[in-house]
Each structure stands twice: as structure tokens, then as C-alpha cells.
């Protein structure tokens, strides 16, 4: 069970909740803070003071005054009008992560909502009610208005949900699960939708997928080093004392552990001066990816426990810019570029293995070259995925399109940035899976040695079986991709990314 305080939510808890493995409740201390904040809002309303989005209109409609008897109607209409999106519905993991981080943000006790609103959101989460939320439509400022409005629409008993793969009316699922829709009070509509929860859910899940991919990419690189009889001279710790980027040394040590005991690497180390960059520079390239990930993780950890709506009760009601997605947009764009390069260097090793003039191995690893094409085409697929990633990696945060009659004249575009990150991570998983397939086939032909390499080979053998002769390879790539998702290989081959050269010496 996860207890929300507004201050202690972790990335691991987000991942576990997104996968449906946790029940979530709000702490007593958080409830007390929420109640206090709510009292302040009610006092301000009763005093007749103007509060943005509570007694005024929204965006460029800020000059429109709202009477007391229209406050509930204002909040309800806000949700209805802002529930405008496009594209396929978000997957269950993303929606559950959104609900969790929105509830935690409101639990900080500076948003002015009632505890009952947060509890209703958690009831939806705990009963696995998944609002229908189109994936596109957020410009990442004033929060994720469109996606969160669809979430809030379900909360008030309107809109649609996805139930057992079918799209149905929200009210029917509420009736089935014994829940009552929420009647929004003053400020509660804007507090629900004026936040970064869609961006944050995507960035959190994208980061977790990236960390998993990096570890598997290190294993794949080790498999390729073995097959290509690479030298491990470039893994010498002295290099990373001379240029002390901590993460570069971390990757070098992890890679050295993977290839330990490889006879082909031992021979390569004895006979070669150096390797091509795609082998020699793995610690530098993947270490730089790890540097990027560490930066992004820090952004995520801060945002997970932030209040991101507007205005906030501090205790004065203050209008600011906590809803702006710039930190998430820049982080997502940065990680997207890093993951794209992780895919690039993986594809280069795949290409090198399959080119007989570069590898010294049989052409395309075909058992009967000529009559068979071997693994020629999976490299085409990896190339196509790399190309798509390069297109997707263009930074969304470099763009700006004003909204709301120029009241909102600078937007982060973080909704697009974080969504593209997830797509890039998916493509990179395919690229790494292809490198593993190619290396596995090469090991079938030329042998394998070393504890961890033998383990990787055995797990792949259990996953896809023998790969003799020409055969359809899409199924094998899909199976390896699912193997990467399962993290089964990491249970047997630990890839540590939390140590440095200095601390291990």
C-alpha cells in the first residue's frame, strides 16, 4: 500500500501503481493540510475577493467576474469545455500514473480542494476505473489541460472509460463499482486540470523504460564484443581516471563484467590495438546516456512531489507558473536525443556483425550464404527504427505556439515531448532486440564463453529456440522485446549503474 503525503512519492511507486500492483491511500497529515487549504479558499470566496479561476473566467477570460451562485457551474463547465483531444486513448499504465501523481500533487495541501475530491480520485484508481483520454492535445502549459479534463470528466460521472477493452459511459461503470460522481466545488475543476500530470506520467514511465533499455543495451554490447572478438583495452579503469565522467566508468565496469570469461574477447585483447568506435566507445556513448538519465531522474523526483496547479494557497492565493511544463519538456527532449544515440550505436554493431568484410564472420550469418539471406533484413528494420527516432528526436521544446488569445503566449510543448520519448524508447527496444538476435545467432554458429554471456545465450535460447536457416524473424524480435520488458535477463545478469570507478577501487 502506498500512502500519499504530497512529499514522499517515489518513481518506483509510480511504476508499481501504473502496473496495478498497489493500493493507494492519503495520509492523515495530508488530509489535515488539505482541509486547512480548503478553509482558506472558502474564506476568500465568502469575503468576495477575486480569485483567478474561482471567481473569474479562465485564460483571456480573466476579466469576466463570476457570481457566487455560478461557482459550481463554472467548474463543471471548465471540465466539459476543456475535454477536447485527438488520437487513440492512452494506455492503462499511463492513465494510472496520471491519477496517482495528480492525487499526490493535490495532497500537498496548497491547492484548495476538499479531501473528498482526492479520495474520489483514489477510489477510481484503486477500483481500476480507466478514463478514456485521447493521447494528443496538451501544449504543456496551464498544465495538461486537455488530458486532465478527460480524467476529471470521468470523475464527475461524464465522458467515457475503458472497461475490459471496451469504451463505455463513465456513469455505468460508477454504478457497477458502487461509486458516486463528484460535484465540483469552487476551484476544484481548475485544480484537477491545471497540472503537469500527463507530462509527468509519460516522463516517469519513459525514464523507467530507458533505464531498463540501457542495462539491456550494455548486455547486447557485450554479446557483440564477444562475437567480434573485440579488445577490452577500452574498458581500462585508467581511462576514466584521466577523464573522470563518473557514468562512463560505471558503464565500462558493467560491460567488463558482462564479457568476463569470453575467450574471443581475450584473444581480441591479445591481438588488437583498438576497435571501431561502435565497440571502443561504448562506455563514452552509453555513459553519456546514463548522465542524461541521471539529470532527468532528478527532474522527475522533484516534480513527483510538487504542486503544479494555479493559483496556489500559500496561504495567500497566489497566481504563478507552477503549471508550466518547461522542466519536463526539456528533460524529455534531452533523454529522447540520448536514447536515439543509444539506438544508433547499437545498430552500428549489428551492421558490423553482418558485414563479412568488417566482422570476419559469415555473410549475414547465413548458414548457406547465397541460397539463404541470413539476418540481412533485421538490420534494415533497425535502420528504419533509427531513422524514425532521428525524426522524433527533434526537440518539441524548441517550438512555441501561443494560446488563449495570447494570454498564454509561451507554451512548453511538453505533452508532445514526453509522448515522443515513449515512442523513441519503444523503437530503441526493437533496435536492441535485433542486436541481441543477431549476436545470439552468431553465438549459435561460433560458440559462446563466459559466465554472463552463457547466461544471456541460454535465456535467449529458451525465449526463441534455435535459429537455423532462413526463417521469419519478426516473431523472434517480438519475443526478445517482451523479454526486455520482463527484465528476466537482469535477474540473472546484474548490470549495476550505481557505482563509480573510484568507489570500486
Task: Explain how this protein is built.
The chain is mainly alpha-helical and about 500 residues long. It has 2 domains: about 1-195, Fumarase C, Chain B, domain 1 (Orthogonal Bundle); about 200-310 and about 315-400 and about 410-505, Fumarase/aspartase (Central domain) (Fumarase C, Chain A, domain 2, Up-down Bundle). The protein is about 60% helix and about 5% strand. The chain has 22 helices and 9 strands. The strands form 4 sheets. A 3-stranded antiparallel sheet has the order 4-6-7. Strands 1-2 form a two-stranded parallel ribbon. A two-stranded antiparallel ribbon has the order 3-5. A hairpin with a 3-residue loop joins β8 (about 310-315) and β9. α3 (about 70-80) packs across α6. The chain is elongated.
The overall number of domains is 2
From the coordinates shown, what is the CATH architecture of the largest domain? Answer: Up-down Bundle
* Poorly predicted tracts of residues: none
Strand order of the largest sheet: 4-6-7
CATH fold title of the largest domain: Fumarase C, Chain A, domain 2
Major β-sheet, in short? 3 strands, antiparallel
| Gyration radius from CA atoms, angstroms | 26 Å
- N-C termini distance: 39 Å
Oligomer: single chain
* Average of per-residue pLDDT values: 96
> How many beta-strand elements?
9
| Fraction of residues in H or I helices | 55-70%
Number of helices: 22
Structural class: mainly alpha
Amino acid at each position: 500500500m502506498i500512502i500519499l503525503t504530497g512529499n514522499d512519492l517515489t518513481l518506483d511507486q509510480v511504476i508499481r501503481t501504473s502496473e496495478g500492483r498497489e493500493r493507494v491511500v492519503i495520509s492523515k497529515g495530508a488530509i489535515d493540510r488539505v482541509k486547512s487549504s480548503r478553509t482558506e479558499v472558502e474564506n476568500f470566496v465568502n469575503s468576495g475577493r477575486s480569485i483567478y479561476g474561482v471567481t473569474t473566467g479562465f485564460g483571456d477570460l480573466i476579466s469576466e467576474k463570476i457570481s457566487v451562485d455560478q461557482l459550481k457551474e463554472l467548474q463543471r463547465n471548465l471540465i466539459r469545455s476543456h475535454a477536447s483531444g485527438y488520437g487513440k486513448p492512452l494506455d492503462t499504465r499511463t492513465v494510472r500514473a496520471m491519477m496517482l501523481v495528480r492525487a499526490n500533487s493535490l495532497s500537498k495541501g496548497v491547492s484548495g480542494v476538499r479531501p473528498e475530491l482526492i479520495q474520489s480520485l483514489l477510489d477510481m484508481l484503486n477500483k481500476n476505473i480507466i478514463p478514456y483520454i485521447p493521447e494528443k492535445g496538451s501544449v504543456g502549459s496551464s498544465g495538461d489541460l486537455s488530458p486532465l479534463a478527460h480524467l476529471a470528466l470521468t470523475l464527475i460521472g461524464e465522458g467515457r472509460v475503458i472497461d475490459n477493452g471496451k469504451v463505455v459511459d463513465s456513469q455505468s461503470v460508477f454504478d457497477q463499482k458502487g461509486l458516486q460522481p463528484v460535484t465540483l466545488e469552487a476551484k476544484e475543476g481548475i485544480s484537477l486540470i491545471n497540472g503537469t500530470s500527463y507530462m509527468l506520467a509519460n516522463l516517469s514511465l519513459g525514464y523507467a523504460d530507458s533505464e531498463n533499455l540501457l542495462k539491456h543495451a550494455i548486455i547486447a554490447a557485450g554479446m557483440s564484443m564477444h562475437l567480434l572478438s573485440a579488445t577490452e583495452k577500452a574498458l581500462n579503469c585508467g581511462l576514466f581516471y584521466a577523464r573522470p565522467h563518473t557514468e562512463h566508468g560505471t558503464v565500462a565496469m558493467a560491460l567488463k563484467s558482462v564479457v568476463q570469461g569470453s575467450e574471443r574477447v581475450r584473444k581480441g585483447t591479445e591481438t588488437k590495438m583498438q576497435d571501431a568506435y561502435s565497440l571502443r566507445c561504448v562506455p563514452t556513448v552509453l555513459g553519456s546516456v546514463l548522465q542524461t538519465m541521471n539529470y532527468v531522474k532528478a527532474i522527475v523526483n522533484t516534480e513527483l512531489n510538487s504542486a503544479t496547479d494555479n493559483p496556489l494557497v500559500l496561504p495567500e492565493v497566489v497566481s504563478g507558473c507552477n503549471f508550466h511544463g518547461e522542466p519536463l519538456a526539456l528533460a524529455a527532449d534531452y533523454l529522447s536525443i540520448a536514447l536515439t544515440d543509444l539506438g544508433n550505436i547499437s545498430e552500428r554493431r549489428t551492421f558490423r556483425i553482418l558485414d563479412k568484410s568488417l566482422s570476419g564472420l559469415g555473410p549475414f550469418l547465413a548458414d548457406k550464404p547465397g541460397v539463404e539471406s541470413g539476418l540481412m533484413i533485421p538490420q534494415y528494420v533497425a535502420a528504419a527504427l533509427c531513422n524514425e527516432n532521428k525524426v522524433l528526436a527533434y526537440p518539441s521544446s524548441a517550438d512555441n505556439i501561443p494560446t488563449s488569445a495570447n494570454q498564454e503566449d509561451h507554451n512548453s510543448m511538453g505533452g508532445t515531448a514526453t509522448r515522443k520519448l515513449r515512442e523513441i524508447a519503444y523503437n530503441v527496444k526493437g533496435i536492441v532486440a535485433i542486436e541481441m538476435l543477431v549476436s545470439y545467432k552468431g553465438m549459435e554458429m561460433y560458440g559462446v564463453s563466459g559466465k554472463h554471456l552463457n547466461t544471456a545465450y541460454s535465456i535467449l535460447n529458451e525465449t526463441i529456440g534455435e535459429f537455423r536457416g532462413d526463417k521469419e524473424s519478426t516473431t523472434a524480435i517480438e519475443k526478445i522485446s517482451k523479454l526486455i520488458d520482463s527484465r528476466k535477463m537482469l535477474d540473472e545478469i546484474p548490470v549495476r549503474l550505481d557505482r563509480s570507478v573510484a568507489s570500486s577501487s
